[in-house]
Amino acid sequence: MRLTLSLSILFLGTALAQQPSPLPDAKPVPRVQILPLPDHQATFLLEGRELTRFHFDPKSKRPFWYPVQTSLAPSLIRIGHPHDPVTHRHHYGVWITHSDVSGVNFWDDEADNGKDKVRGSIVYQRTIGYWDGDESAAMMTLNHWIAERDGHVLLLEKRRSELRPLNGAKSWMLIVDSEFTAPKGKTATFNPSGFGLLSARMAKTIGVHDGGGRILNSEGQVNEQQVFRKPARWCDYSGRLTNDAQGFAGITLMNHPGNPNHPTAFHVRDDGWMCDCLSLEKPIEVGDTRPLHVRWALWVHEGVPDQQTCEAMWRKFSELPLPDMAQKP
């Protein structure tokens, strides 16, 4: 009886497969997609599975990505410091910001009280485009870096976010390109600071202090005491994500060799934070005709990679062609 039923199902499946398509001109669904969602969000999908999501509400202090996932269910990143949710609430998963742009503080969320630096917000203006494909998908937005006290625009930023799978959901890259220009006739300066540009707040269980995780950089240095503000090509933060035997994962933050001050310093903490410092010791000026193009990748992976594996992934990233940022805003 079971054999007869199985054969019937097999024959039915074969017959259905041999039937002509009801839409012979239908195109294949792209393997990698970025789909816009309500409330200024966009989901980054691999074969229908969400790997990350971009949040760009113009009422927020800055755009950010959350969650970041592999084939393991929990997010590798979190919102806020695990032990200080108030003064560190500006840790928005993965985000771009800076603590001192021409005297304006874009870093934290405290209100401008007239005594400290003027606070700033990175305000989404519009989406320039979405591009789907089988190897990768990307979106580009236009953002204004605005001083909150008087509404003065300091920087115009084109931001391109690309999802590039390497081994399904187990290994993939989020490649971020930002091109900064100043308004016409103006200049803006990223002043010396260890806070900015690209940061990641790791899940509590991955942190060295809370979860027994590990920080490793391209020079073979380990954890905050050795890695803190040391120059490197990349920095990996890995740890336990689930209690399964193979429940380890992490993110390698990669600095592109074309970025200023490469190899850049990395500001890291054992509490689960890492940041690629753009201008730790030297100011960087941006003009209206001298755009600043910076490029990073986050290699999101399962397992705990060694130095050689991370270095090979950094080389793969550094050899990728640069994108066309010339789309008009």
Give a description of the structure.
This protein is mainly β and 329 residues long. The chain has a single domain, classed as Beta-galactosidase, Chain A, domain 5 (Distorted Sandwich), CATH 2.70.98. Helices cover 12% and strands 42% of the residues. Strands 1-2-3-4-5-12-18-17-14 form a 9-stranded antiparallel sheet. The protein has a 9-stranded mixed sheet with strand order 6-7-8-9-10-20-16-15-13. β17 and β18 (273-277) form a beta hairpin. The longest helix is centred in the N-terminal third of the chain and has 17 residues, at 2-18. It is globular and about 65 Å long. The N and C termini lie far apart (66 Å).
Q: Structural class per helix/strand content?
A: mainly beta
CATH class (first level) name: Mainly Beta
Uncertain stretches of 5 or more adjacent residues: none
The spatial strand order of the largest sheet comes to 1-2-3-4-5-12-18-17-14
- Summarize the biggest pleated sheet: 9 strands, antiparallel
If you consult CATH, what is the topology? Beta-galactosidase, Chain A, domain 5
Q: Which CATH-level-2 architecture?
A: Distorted Sandwich
Distance between the termini: 66 Å
